[in-house]
Specification:
The protein contains nine helices and ten strands. The radius of gyration is 20 Å and the shape is globular. The protein has a ten-stranded mixed sheet with strand order 3-2-1-4-5-10-9-6-7-8, sandwiched between helices. 41% of the residues lie in helices and 24% in strands. About 6% of the residues have low confidence. The relative contact order is 0.14.
């Protein structure tokens, strides 16, 4: 059985994303491990050591009680979506969120991380949100990020943003496997700036791979990369975006969008980040 790690803070954003985790678990025959990571509150004592044990006990007990209250909420979400048969276990950890996700994905052989993301509120923010972006960059497992206003829709159209390079082919193969579960169509999109050639592409190899598959290849030239991608999503009614993560900070660089674009395009599409 496959494993899905679901980091949660029990917010509405997380609870909304839990539906996607449940649906994915159902499609790929996976169990879900929910993860809540908390930290000790900052104390201003002169001699912190003599108070630390008391602070730790109170904080741990408080978080455990809160966690016990929230677990039935997740079970109710599963029942309301007729997915109560999905195996779900729960983990409560004192520590750093990113570190604990990295640790669990390695030690427990996690196949997917699914998490909710907070939308951008400022001009310089990405729509993915700081924490989710860091998870997508730093955690070497396939990550599915669900924007806060994204209401669940069956995954019927997947957009793979690519440059048709050889190093993207392995990611394409993973997406093809996933698309079989969803019975989804795949659009592969290359956005090429006007001053950039395509010498490094592997179109012939790609053409062979997609034979007899429900996949279309698209190439659009333009300097407004983000705008072209967002317009494609809107025009083709895309249900999921998939991307190969080449390097750290990939998502911060790709998805810094202007205020005008945020107003013009209301992004409510899950994003799948696939690492090398």
């Amino acid at each position: 059985m496959k494993k899905i790690l679901f980091p949660t803070d029990f917010s509405d954003v997380s609870n909304n994303a839990f539906i996607y985790a449940l649906k994915l678990a159902d499609f790929i025959n996976a169990e879900i491990i929910t993860l809540h990571v908390y930290q000790l509150p900052q104390a201003n004592y002169i001699n912190i050591s003599e108070y630390l044990h008391e602070v730790y006990d109170v904080t741990e007990l408080s978080n455990f009680e809160n966690y016990k209250d929230e677990v039935p909420v997740l079970r109710s979400i599963a029942e309301n979506n007729n997915l109560e048969y999905i195996k779900i276990s729960h983990v409560l950890i004192l520590g750093n969120l990113i570190h604990e996700i990295q640790k669990m994905t390695k030690e427990d052989a996690i196949d997917f991380v699914v998490m909710g993301t907070k939308g951008a509120t400022g001009l310089k923010e990405t729509f993915l949100g700081t924490v989710a972006t860091k998870v997508m960059n730093d955690v070497k497992t396939t990550v599915l990020a669900i924007p806060e206003h994204c209401q669940y829709q069956p995954i019927k159209k997947i957009l793979f943003v690519t440059q048709f390079r050889t190093e993207d082919i392995e990611s394409l193969k993973r997406i093809i496997i996933l698309s079989k579960f969803f019975q989804a169509h795949i659009d592969c999109l290359r956005v090429q700036t006007s001053n950039h050639g395509n010498k490094n592409d592997a179109m012939e190899e790609w053409s062979q791979i997609i034979k007899n598959q429900d996949i279309l290849l698209h190439s659009i030239t333009g300097n407004d990369v983000e705008g072209i991608i967002l317009n494609f999503i809107e025009l083709h009614k895309i249900n999921m975006i998939a991307m190969h993560v080449y390097h750290k900070n990939f998502f911060e660089k790709l998805f810094k969008i202007s205020l005008s674009k945020k107003l013009a395009f209301h992004v409510n599409v899950p994003i799948l980040a696939i690492h090398e």
